[in-house]
Amino acid sequence: MIVHDKTLLENLILVEEARSLQEAGFISKEQVSILKNELPVFKSNTNILVRLGFFLLGVFLYLSICGVIALFGLSGINESFFKIVCFIFAIVGFVGAEALSYQNYYQHGLEDAFILGSILNIGIALEIVTDQNELIIATFVAITSFIMYKRYLHLLSMLVFCCSCSAILFYGLFEFGTIGKTILPFVAMIFAVGFYFFTKKLNEKTTQYYYHKGILIANSFCLVLFYLSCNYLVVRELSLELLGDEIAQGKDIPFTYFFYAFTFIVPAIYLVQALKTKDRILLWISFLAIAFSIYTIRFYHSILPIEIALTLGGVFLFGIAYFSIRKLKDNETGLTFKPDRINNSNAILNAEALIVASAFGIKPELKPQASPMDFGGGGFSGGGSGGTF
């Protein structure tokens, strides 16, 4: 199913590990360059700005090809052409992604334009053919994006797949009318929990390392969906939008206390779990969830003017940062504010050659230390004195 050479994928993992060792101080930048020259790798870009530039170039190329096809189609205008033209554009995207992949383009930027363009055109084509049937559109977009991820290991396609699966759940519940719309938050919460544990178990069982990033994206998406499913602001605004209910003065939505408690307890649980497991992604999600929880309260209960609230919030965050640094600065293990002790370590410098040779099969040239004793001449096999005074 994967179009890429698995040997190159494994080499890419080795190069990424080498960069991690370089940042930690185990090996030098020159040795990483030697490794990259010794191992065949993909044509890729690690710089996000460079990759974005190639993505824009790919978009122009993709639009140019589609524009030429559209010009040929407009020469004989008929209604059937407009119904199939987006399918043709989707095929162009797939062919372009295949061609670039066979030329070893991976995480480069050019292939992103063709892959995402193909998924987008599938959605637009189905919207035209099905008269905007959201459930069918979401289903086929989910299938297409999953195929794109499996074949090209395209991480954005995995994110599109997760969003499409959520859309399938939502639009499927809409088919049940008022009952489906009412139970939507609880069903979405259960779906997020089930999908989270499924992806977590799948990540533990997967032995092919190049799948881990995509599964990690799906796992992180479940955490975000779980929080948003029962966030008070989201539930209240969706109730007004979907059910058309008018909330009278002094009244609120059903299960108000549950949604309020959920809005603040879940970010706290995320934060505690992130600190306990040292999970950086979960830590960032918890920070964003806390910020959105504060925004939720201010959206309905504006106690202070915005400038005073921001000032007090900044003072509060400064206080947390200051006392956290004071508390953690002397810790030797676990959470600590001290720099990593493996950096600038003499033990690393001494073990450098061994690590490189054993991990990557590279034999760096070692220059022996010159002897402090300066021997004399000697015309025979010895290293003694010469024959003259």
UniProtKB/TrEMBL annotation:
Keywords: Membrane, Transmembrane, Transmembrane helix
Domain of life: Bacteria
Transmembrane segments: 48-74, 81-101, 113-131, 152-173, 179-198, 210-235, 255-272, 281-300, 306-325
Protein name according to UniProt: Uncharacterized protein
